[in-house]
Amino acid sequence: MPELVFFSGTMDCGKSTLALQIEHNRSARGLTGMIFTRDDRAGEGKLSSRLGLVTDAVEVEDGQDLYAYLVDHLSQGRRADYVIADEAQFLAPEQIDQLARVVDDLGLDVFAFGITTDFRSKLFPGSQRLVELADRIEVLQVEALCWCGARATHNARTIGGAMVVEGAQVVVGDVNHSADEIGYEVLCRRHHRRRMTAASARAAALSPDVLPVPSP
C-alpha cells in the first residue's frame, strides 16, 4: 500500500542525504520520481546535501496546489512513480493535505523530509500536519551532536555565535556560516534551554570563574 512517510530529525542529521539516496535507489530501478523542495541551501529548484550531492527539484511556491500539479503532470502523459518532498517543514498545512491526497487518490508513495521544530522549539505548521497525517514517522538514526558531545535534539538560530529566540520563523541559513551572519546550530535540550552555543561556551571557558586574589 502507498504511504505518506515523514522522515524527521534535527538539522545536520542527514535528511537530504537520505532523500537523495531514495531517489538514486528508485531511479536505478527504472522508476521516475517527482521531487519538491522549498528554500534549499543550494538555491531555488535544488535538493542538496551537505555532502555535496545535488539534484534538480520543483520549487514549491506559496499557495501552490501540489495535488493539482501532479494530476496535470500525469495527464500530459509524463511519469511519476513516487514523490519526494524535502524541507517539508516549510510547506503550508494545506499542501501537506494535498500530499496525503496524492497517496490516497493517485496511489503514489510520498516521502517527506523535514525538521520538526523551529529555533524556539515550536512546531512548524507543515511538520505538525505531517505528524497528524503521516502513515509512518521515521526519526533519523544518524545522530547530530551538540558541541558538548550529547545527542542534539534542538535547532538554535545564532547571530555572531550567540543564540537568539526572537524573529521570523523561517530564515534560510545553514550550520556552516561565517561568524557575523545568521546561522544555525544543533544543541542538546540542556544547552538550548541555557542558550549556550559552542561560541558562548568557548567564551565562558576563557573567562575565569573566580577573580584572582592579589598577592600580599
UniProtKB/TrEMBL annotation:
Subcellular location(s) per record: Cytoplasm
Quaternary structure and interacting proteins, as annotated: Homotetramer.
Family: Belongs to the thymidine kinase family.
Annotated organism of origin: Streptomyces echinatus
Broad class of where this protein is predominantly found: cytoplasm
GO BP term (any one): DNA biosynthetic process
Binding-site list for substrate: V170, V171, V172, G173, Y184
Pfam families reported for this sequence: TK
UniProt signal peptide: none
Alphabetized GO MF terms: ATP binding; thymidine kinase activity
Designated name of the protein: Thymidine kinase
Keywords: ATP-binding, Cytoplasm, DNA synthesis, Kinase, Nucleotide-binding, Transferase
One cellular component (GO) term of this entry: cytosol
Catalytic activity from the UniProt record: thymidine + ATP = dTMP + ADP + H(+)
Active site (UniProt): E87
Residue sites binding ATP per the record: G9, T10, M11, D12, C13, G14, K15, S16, D86, E87, A88, Q89
EC number: 2.7.1.21
